[in-house]
Structures are given as C-alpha cells and as structure tokens.
Write a structure and sequence with these properties.
single chain, 282 residues, alpha+beta, Helix Hairpins, SH3 type barrels, Alpha-Beta Plaits, 5-stranded antiparallel beta sheet, 7 helices, rod-shaped
Length: 282
Amino acid sequence: MQDEMRAAQKLINTVMDFFVNYSFQVVGAILVLIMGVIVARIVSSFLLRLFERQDFDITLSKFIASAVKITILVFVIIVALGKFGISVAPFIAALAAIAFGASFAIQGPLSNYGAGLVIILTRPFAVGNTITVAGVSGVVEEINLGSTNLIDEDGVKITIPNKHVVGEVLFNSQEHKIIEGLVGISYDSNPIEAIGIIQETLDEFEEISKDPAPQVGIQEFSDSSVNIGFRYWVPTKRYFQTLYTVNLSVYRHLKEGNIEIPFPQRDVHIVSRSRDALSSTS
C-alpha cells in the first residue's frame, strides 16, 4: 500500500513539475495554434472573395486559397512545436523522405494535378464548351485539378483524368456540335431547287445556330444520284433529337417539292450472239 502511495505521489509531483515548468509554453502553443487557424481561414476567405471580384477561374482560385491556408497552418505548427523546445529539423527530414518514397506510388495522381493546372492556366476550354478528346465527347460540366467532367446528351457523366487531356488532340466546338447530312437526288431533278428546299427546312428550326449559318450544296456526283450535303450547328445536348427531326423534315419537304430520291440502280446490257457466230468461234 505504501509503495502505491509513493508511486501516486511521484506521478502527481511529475505532473505538477511539468505544468510549473511548461505551463506558459503549453498556453503559448495553444494560443499560437488558435490564432494560426483563424488567420488561415481569414486569409483563405479573403483570397476567394478577391478572385471572385476579379472573375478569376474558380478552380484555380480554390487551389491557391487552399495552398495558402495549408502553408500558414504548417508554419503555425512549426512555431507551436518550437514553444516546447522541439526541433523540427528531424520531422522535416522524415517528411521529405516519406514524400520522396510516396512520389513513386502517387505519380499518376500527381501527373493529373499537374495537367489540371496546365488546363486551368492555358484555358483550352471552359465550362459549357463541347469537347472531343481521348475518344469521348460531351459538354464540359466541371474542371477539377485531377479530372475533367463531361456530360453527354443522354445525361451520362464522363470523367477524364487530366493527364489524358493535356497533350492529346482536342476538338472544342464551344457550346455547339456540328451535324453533317447527305441526301441523294435524281439526275433528272433540279439540284438548285433541292438546295433551296433544304436551306428553307433548316431555317425553320430555332435550335439550329445562325452564326455560323447552315451550309448546303452539291457534295458529290455518285453513280445513281447527285448527293446534296448539308451542315449545321446545334446545342450539344440536343444533337440526336435535332438530327432525327431535321432528317424527317428534309425528306418530307423534298417529296412535297417533287424532288426524286432514287434508290441505287445499275443498267445491265445483255449482248446476244447468233448460233452461227458461236459455232464459228468454236
């Protein structure tokens, strides 16, 4: 029992000595941490408001604000540790070694973040643009540091790692997407009338862009028909809906205008020979 009492008394004395010797350091470290967190939040919020007033890119604004906030917090932690007389040099060396080893494991995500910064700084496209890259196409919904999110006409969300965006061939048609159509008319029909009918049909649709304007003309002369090509731009999210409606309307108006749409045909000539000619050749 006496041994337990002496052990408890020793523990109490140790705790009291600690508070007597380090109470000011503990209080100072806590105050430094609290003030550092407050300052980091204030500075981060200030930067976000400043960038917003300057119409700065939202993704880059958040990245810079977060980076500044983390930098302040790291500095505050180093100062707080110094209040206890703890040297931070070994911790910095350890963190550097860990970061060096981890860089090999996370080089994929890091390359995505680096590519994301390139996209944000160079601005090859913006939210709302229609892009085609890495074999997929859609409207840009969000640009993050690690990935770019697209959405297609079916509402499918497509996530592309940014390292597959930077350095690739990129098609950007802004908020529109081009539709290319082709219809063949008979050689007996008037192509000028057919072009006029198709042009008037395209002008009936409000969703078809007027700038750039639709293009209609003779595209090629095939074996059985004169092929009239037409190109027009529509909002990406209404691509197929507009395509199907326009094709049906073009077909109906051509029929009403007595423009013949021929089916593939081929003239076959049968050459007959007389029996005497056949016997002479044999």
